[in-house]
Every structure is written in C-alpha cells, then in structure tokens.
Design goal:
The protein contains eleven helices and nine strands. The protein is of the alpha+beta class. α1 crosses α2 and α5 crosses α6.
Length: 289
Amino acid sequence: MGWVESIQKAIDYIEEHLLEDLTIESISRQANASAFHFQRTFTILTDISIGEYIRRRRLTLAAQEISSTNGKVIDLAYKYGYDTPEAFSKAFRRQHGVSPSEARKYMGKLKFYERLMIQVILKGAKPMKYNILERDSFQLIGIKQEFSLVNEENLIGIPKLWEKVNSNGTGDRLAKLNNGQIDGLLGVCVDKRNVEKSETMDYWIGAEYAGKVPEEFSTLTIPASKWVVFEVHGPMPDSMQQAWKRIFSEWFPTSGHEHAGTPELEVYDNADASNPDYYSEIWIPIKKG
C-alpha cells in the first residue's frame, strides 16, 4: 500500500469512529506508521493537526444535527465528545460564529468542513532539487528538550525552543563548534514511542561535531543511513513548510522510496532566516518501498 493510500485509510478510520474515543496510536496504526511520523505528515499535508481535524468534523456533524432535529443540547454535547453543554457551546460558537440555539433558529451561517480526501498532484513545473547520498553514523552535539505528544503539545513547544536558542546565544555557540560535513544548525526529532512506549518525543537543536564535548551540551548519534537531501530556498518558516508539503505530496508518492523511520534533519544556515535568499536543507532517511 502506498503512503497516500495509507493516510487515506487512516482518515477513513477517523470518519468511521468519529464519535468514539480516538487516539493517535489507533489512527496511526491504520497507516502502518509510528504515531509521531503520522502526526507530522498529516499536519504537513493538511495544514491542520489531527486533533483539530477531528474537532472540526465533529462540530460540523453537530451543526447538521442541530439544524435538522430537536435533540437537546446537553445530549449533543455528550454525543460529540464534550463533558458539559457549556464547553460544547463555546467550541460550537468558535467554529460556527453562533451558539447552538441560534443555529437551530437559522441565525447566521454555519461553517462546514468536508471529509478529507488525500490526492497526489503532479505539478512538475517547479522542480525539486535534491540529492541522494549515504553516510556512516555521526555525532551531533547540542541541547534537547522532551515534549509531550498528547494534544500535540510538541507542535507548540518546538518553535518556542528555537526562539530561546536564537536569543540566548546557544545557536551562535553551536555554530562555532560545528566541524562536520553538514554546515549549519540541525533540528532533529527523535520519536521515543517505539523504544520506551512513552507519550513523549525528544527534540534536539545541535550541530555535527567531532571532539571533546563541552559540558553544557549533550550528544546524539545519528545512525548510518541512505539520505535524500532537499534544497530549500527562501525565508523561514514558510519555505520550510512548503518544502515538506511538496516532499510528502509529490516526491514520496512517486519516488519508490519510503521513510526509514529514523530521525530526520532540518539544516539551518546561521544567517538571517527572513532573507528571501535564505538557504536550508531537509535530510530524510529513506529505504526502498
């Protein structure tokens, strides 16, 4: 089964169990992927998190039911996963702009989100510049922070960690220590679920380095891998986000390769990230599909 088909299978599973207690683990199993990689890929392809997609779809169905039945708000609140009518009404108004009672009276326009269908669009007009290479294992030094994967807290916390590193001088110190083949600061996600069965991941900001490690930094060994390395041109964060989207929507479905499941790298030049000519890279470990 291809990657796009696997994601669609997971979306179909969400829809079939939309009113049940869904977990990221049960959803990702449908795509035969780790929870971390599925969560990340889903967000890249759709621009929303899995939790947000589920919330939007439930509130869409709730609005349809309110508009066409006389069901009590308290019953609908419990049916669509809310502990209290107040919480349901607050979420309903945030999405639709009106309260459940106003929706029943046809006061205002409701916002409906359709079921997702993943499609591959082969554009071809804008080439993707990449290189495939093999490397032995190497050492990264830097800092790491553990993030919870519950409620997708990692998606909120990682940008804040970069802000801290860029403002307190840590990024500059790592850039000066960098003496490996990869020239730049590295952002590395390490999925711990399959190893520790935990609900967390580690995120590293570091640099490739061989030598005595300063006390302020820790080390991470990146395993030997076959890599596909994509060039990214343009200011952050938009250029990086668009590159990831094209990789998963255009390159992987047609390349004959799969993600190898080991840590991937984002490589950032220690320069002005808002510059229109800013250069960065995405390193993804791959295997034959």
